[in-house]
């Protein structure tokens, strides 16, 4: 049947003859016998996702008494040939996208009761008289507005040309900058990573992401290669976050990304090598993340082991896997997932779930305490006390000498040391470090 091919109807039982044998007739239709010949008398194709115009193949169904094409996506005008079906008594075209005039012959059959016609939910259809009146009302406004539209288009075209010239110049400058940035970051294959690290021979560190290996590029430059472990608590999102941030953020106190590997399940980040490992020292990279970047960036995992040192003892902030960018300088973020390292976490994060620049400032304060005291953030004994719990009683007694790391051998300005210790909070929630 041509209708099946036109609309690509794929009903399972629409195979062979539509009417014979009767036990296997097609669904949605009924047949009647005339002179020992079976003819289709009823056809229901409602809600069948039919698209396009009404096929002229319907005109061949001369014995059709009822045709239901409702709730499809048929468009165009209602065809005149439907009125030529001599036996048609019911025609349902509701719920489609027909437009224009309804054929006069169909309207006449509907008015005299020869045809039950349904045309609801076709908002663009109208009666013949209504269409003519609408056309008259529409012509004058169209003619009147055409001149103003043309004038407006000319003005907009001139402005558009000016804007394009400006944007082209800006894009040219930006493209040069982006190409320069991309050229500094290489993409490595996993086999290249294996060669650089001599098959992952020398481990120089390990963190939540995975192990860090010492590597050497073909030009002799030493690099640190951080490889994502299959058992890592962090995953591809953290890997992607750190790679993207370090590609666009550059500062003397932020560790530089040489390149990365993103090959199937093999993920690795290649950094400049910090010959002096990770030490504790004041740094300005944090201020750059908070005030120099647009939008501002919160590190979320500040600790002494994430502050690395170059051969010239220059501190650089590393490990951006948990970092988050904020829309404005004063924006905050409410997080339901744990981020950071116990002991360095802002107590406000545990009570309210709020992360902002102050979270980094709190962590940096803990780092400074470690530097001044020479003590770990959390003691390794059975009690596992936080460094603040250890310091506060000594501050109350004024025993500053006992607080400060004896390895400093009193080679420090006492006023500066007291200034650092004055900012220590009186209490710290155990939830924030246990």
Automatic annotation (TrEMBL):
<feature type="domain" description="Protein kinase">
    <location>
        <begin position="198"/>
        <end position="434"/>
    </location>
</feature>
<keyword id="KW-0547">Nucleotide-binding</keyword>
<dbReference type="InterPro" id="IPR017441">
    <property type="entry name" value="Protein_kinase_ATP_BS"/>
</dbReference>
<dbReference type="InterPro" id="IPR000719">
    <property type="entry name" value="Prot_kinase_dom"/>
</dbReference>
<protein>
    <recommendedName>
        <fullName>Protein kinase domain-containing protein</fullName>
    </recommendedName>
</protein>
<feature type="binding site">
    <location>
        <position position="226"/>
    </location>
    <ligand>
        <name>ATP</name>
    </ligand>
</feature>
<keyword id="KW-0433">Leucine-rich repeat</keyword>
<keyword id="KW-1133">Transmembrane helix</keyword>
<keyword id="KW-0472">Membrane</keyword>
<dbReference type="GO" id="GO:0005524">
    <property type="term" value="F:ATP binding"/>
</dbReference>
<feature type="transmembrane region" description="Helical">
    <location>
        <begin position="138"/>
        <end position="162"/>
    </location>
</feature>
<keyword id="KW-0812">Transmembrane</keyword>
<keyword id="KW-0723">Serine/threonine-protein kinase</keyword>
<dbReference type="GO" id="GO:0004674">
    <property type="term" value="F:protein serine/threonine kinase activity"/>
</dbReference>
<dbReference type="Pfam" id="PF13855">
    <property type="entry name" value="LRR_8"/>
</dbReference>
<keyword id="KW-0418">Kinase</keyword>
<keyword id="KW-0732">Signal</keyword>
<keyword id="KW-0677">Repeat</keyword>
<keyword id="KW-0675">Receptor</keyword>
<dbReference type="InterPro" id="IPR008271">
    <property type="entry name" value="Ser/Thr_kinase_AS"/>
</dbReference>
<keyword id="KW-0808">Transferase</keyword>
<dbReference type="InterPro" id="IPR001611">
    <property type="entry name" value="Leu-rich_rpt"/>
</dbReference>
<dbReference type="InterPro" id="IPR032675">
    <property type="entry name" value="LRR_dom_sf"/>
</dbReference>
<dbReference type="GO" id="GO:0016020">
    <property type="term" value="C:membrane"/>
</dbReference>
<dbReference type="InterPro" id="IPR011009">
    <property type="entry name" value="Kinase-like_dom_sf"/>
</dbReference>
<keyword id="KW-0067">ATP-binding</keyword>
<dbReference type="Pfam" id="PF00069">
    <property type="entry name" value="Pkinase"/>
</dbReference>
<comment type="similarity">
    <text>Belongs to the protein kinase superfamily.</text>
</comment>
């Amino acid at each position: 049947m041509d209708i099946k091919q036109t609309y690509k109807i794929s009903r399972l039982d629409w195979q062979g003859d539509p009417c014979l044998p009767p036990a296997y007739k097609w669904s949605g239709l009924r047949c009647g016998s005339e002179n020992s010949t079976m003819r289709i008398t009823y056809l229901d194709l409602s809600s069948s996702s039919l698209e396009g115009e009404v096929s002229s193949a319907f005109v061949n169904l001369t014995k059709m008494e009822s045709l239901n094409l409702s709730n499809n996506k048929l468009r165009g005008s209602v065809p005149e040939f439907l009125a030529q079906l001599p036996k048609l008594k019911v025609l349902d075209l509701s719920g489609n996208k027909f437009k224009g005039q309804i054929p006069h012959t169909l309207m006449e059959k509907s008015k005299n009761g020869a045809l039950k016609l349904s045309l609801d939910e076709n908002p663009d259809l109208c009666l013949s008289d209504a269409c003519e009146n609408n056309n008259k009302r529409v012509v004058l406004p169209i003619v009147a507005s055409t001149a103003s539209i043309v004038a407006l288009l000319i003005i907009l075209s001139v402005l558009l040309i000016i804007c394009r010239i400006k944007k082209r110049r800006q894009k040219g400058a930006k493209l040069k900058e982006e190409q320069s940035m991309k050229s500094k970051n290489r993409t490595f294959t996993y086999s290249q990573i294996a060669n650089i690290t001599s098959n992952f021979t020398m481990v120089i560190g390990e963190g939540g992401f995975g192990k860090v290996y010492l590597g050497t590029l073909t030009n002799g430059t030493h690099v640190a290669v951080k490889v994502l472990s299959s058992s890592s608590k962090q995953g591809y999102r953290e890997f992607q976050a750190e790679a993207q941030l370090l590609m666009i953020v550059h500062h003397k106190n932020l560790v530089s990304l040489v390149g990365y590997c993103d090959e199937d399940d093999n993920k690795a980040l290649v950094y400049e090598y910090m010959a002096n490992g990770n030490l504790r020292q004041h740094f300005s990279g944090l201020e750059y993340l908070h005030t120099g970047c647009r939008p501002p960036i919160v590190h979320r995992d500040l600790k002494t082991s994430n502050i690395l040192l170059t051969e010239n003892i220059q501190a650089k902030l590393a490990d951006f896997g948990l970092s988050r960018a904020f829309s404005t300088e004063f924006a905050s973020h409410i997080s339901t997932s744990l981020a950071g390292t116990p002991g360095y976490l802002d107590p406000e994060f545990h009570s309210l779930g709020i992360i902002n620049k102050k979270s980094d400032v709190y962590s940096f304060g803990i780092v400074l305490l470690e530097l001044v005291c020479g003590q770990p953030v959390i003691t390794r004994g059975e009690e596992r006390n936080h460094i603040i719990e250890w310091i506060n009683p000594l501050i109350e007694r004024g025993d500053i000498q006992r607080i400060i790391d004896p390895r400093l051998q009193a080679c420090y300005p006492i006023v500066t040391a007291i200034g650092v210790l004055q900012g220590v909070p009186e209490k710290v929630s155990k939830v924030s470090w246990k």
